[in-house]
Amino acid sequence: MEFWQWLVIVFASITTLVLIVFLYAPLRRIYYEKNLVKIYYKNVKKVAYYKDFYLINQLILNVDDNQQIHIDHLLFADKYIYVILDKFYPGKLSGKPEDESLLFAFGHGRKQRLPVVVDNPLKQNRTRIAKLSLLTGLDLDLFISVVLVNDDGDFLDIRDDKKMDYLVQRKYFYKLIDYIEKRPLSPINPHQLQEAVQSIARLNQRDLVKKK
User: Fold this and answer.
1) Cα 193 to Cα 79: distance, rounded to the nearest angstrom
2) Per residue in 153-199, pLDDT tens?
3) What is the sign, positive or negative, of the torsion defined by CA atoms of 173, 176, 180, 181?
4) Domain locations in the chain?
5) Residue 8 exposure: Cα atoms within 13 Å on the Cβ side
């Protein structure tokens, strides 16, 4: 092989490496945004499987003729029903849990951009829970709100002491459910829980939406 051919190979390799470095973050973000529910589903399914909990994935319910609520995962545990919202924040999320909006700064370290205003996912999920409670007739106190987020984000500024609303990274999700389910409360009646699962499953519009 001639010298110029070696130069072409080296140049092509370096170019490919540079492209991978620069495109990794945006391509990863696009992949996560398009496959978020499927990716996070693995974490939720693990809890449902090992704890023997009921799970409804991608729940769509009609509120009225013009409004629907979409729930990424609904996990029926022994003591609570967990309404889980999947979110991906590749950077730092900050603010107070009770605020209508939060601040999100894309990136990390020196490459972090100026923060922008985003909707508060804790508020969003709590609104869904209120509507779900009205639709099903289930007590509002049975529901725990969980916003499931990526492991590599910065969420240390988001604190909530209400014990009914949580923002948690994927790697801590199993531990969170285990911790909450250890609260000194009587479990939900198994027969009533099964009826609730079946009733909500019948209301699910997911398959109907896919067929349209």
Assistant:
1) 10
2) 888 766 666 689 999 999 999 999 999 999 999 999 999 999 999 99
3) positive
4) 40-211
5) 5
- Over residues 2-18, the pLDDT tens digits come to 666 666 666 677 766 66
Q: What's the half-sphere exposure (Cβ side, CA atoms, 13 Å) at 33?
A: 8
Domain at 40-211: CATH architecture: 3-Layer(aba) Sandwich (3.40)
Please give the single-letter amino acid code of residue 73.
H
What is the residue whose two structure tokens read 């997911």? 206
Nearest to 108 by CA among 90, 93, 89: 90
Give the model confidence (pLDDT) of 113-129 as tens digits.
Answer: 888 999 999 999 999 99
